[in-house]
Specification:
mainly alpha; globular; Growth Hormone, Chain: A; single chain; 303 residues; 12 helices
């Protein structure tokens, strides 16, 4: 069991690194919207197909076969990247390294209200989300679903993520990144309100799979809004540093909140964590809607 925890730690650490570095793959700011849209489609498509594939392999070949296959795929990806000799322009050629070293996310948050609203809304919504996120699989087992429901949940999150990415690409023509993020908070509120306040005895289990789809949709919108928003405000030169700073904050939230959520669920109930999450999301949505209104009002005074 300890070996599995070690593997999970290594895997999570590597994912954090990739999450920061892949922002530097796209150099042209004008293409960043399309880049993040396609990147999101690929990510969410894998979330649909791979969990179903893993459920099948785990059923017929066992857990260690799945882990071995995962290691092989990771090695293939690493070696392919390392030995890739195709021509790549020097994306960092025009970047002032001294300016990058002097970059401060805190100063950027203080000087750019839009960035502050985006990052703080994202962080607080993550705080509420991670309080209950890990309880979803346990909840489905509690209402009588089999172990394979975990695979279906992840796949539905992927389907919702693709829809969320598509919605984001369309809404971005009319809304800003921070408005997109507020939209995702609202969708998450609806989903977790359903998990917390609907009666599992009187509602069909398909209702809860629909709510999972909504969580996936909100995740897709959030994925797009935070990445495109930060890139659009910060620019290519500092996007790696900014993303790394945001990732540090999110990592702390992702570590602490599931522990608090698990303890709360054990002490009271799983449904209570969902209720608490939905209430927090509602407060976050209304607060940042008000802050956005005040910021817009302040800007209009100088027009």
């Amino acid at each position: 069991m300890i070996f599995l925890y070690v593997i999970t730690l290594i895997k999570t650490t590597c994912r954090c690194g990739l999450g920061i570095l892949n922002k530097k793959l796209n150099v042209d700011d004008n293409e960043s919207q399309r880049f993040y849209e396609i990147y999101g489609y690929i990510t969410n498509f894998s979330r649909i197909v791979i969990p179903l594939f893993v459920v099948y392999l785990n059923t017929y070949y066992g857990l260690w076969f799945v882990l071995s296959l995962s290691i092989i795929f990771n090695l293939v990806g690493m070696l392919t990247s390392y030995f890739d000799n195709t021509f790549r322009p020097d994306a960092n050629g025009g970047i002032n390294s001294t300016a990058v070293e002097r970059f401060s996310l805190i100063q950027q948050l203080k000087s750019k209200p839009d960035l502050y609203l985006l990052v703080s809304a994202y962080t607080l919504s993550n705080l509420a989300f991670f309080l209950s996120n890990d309880m979803l699989g346990i909840f489905f087992e509690k209402i009588g679903q089999s172990e394979s429901s975990i695979g279906y949940i992840i796949s539905l999150l992927g389907v919702g993520g693709i829809i969320g990415m598509r919605i984001s690409g369309w809404l971005l023509k009319k809304l800003s990144a921070k408005n997109l993020l507020l939209f995702s908070v609202m969708v998450n509120f609806v989903a977790f309100w359903g998990f917390g306040f609907l009666d599992a005895k009187t509602n069909h289990y398909a209702t809860y799979y629909l709510l999972i789809f909504l969580v996936g949709t909100a995740s897709g919108v959030t994925f797009f809004a935070i990445r495109y928003g930060v890139r659009n405000i910060i620019g290519f030169e500092h996007v790696g540093k900014a993303t790394g700073g945001i990732q540090k904050i999110s990592s702390i939230v992702a570590i602490l909140m599931p522990i608090i959520g698990g303890y709360t669920a054990k002490l009271i109930s799983i449904e209570f964590t969902f209720k608490l999450t939905s209430i927090l999301l509602a407060v976050i949505f209304l607060y940042f809607l008000f802050k956005k209104y005040k910021l817009t009002e302040k800007r209009n005074m100088y027009v």
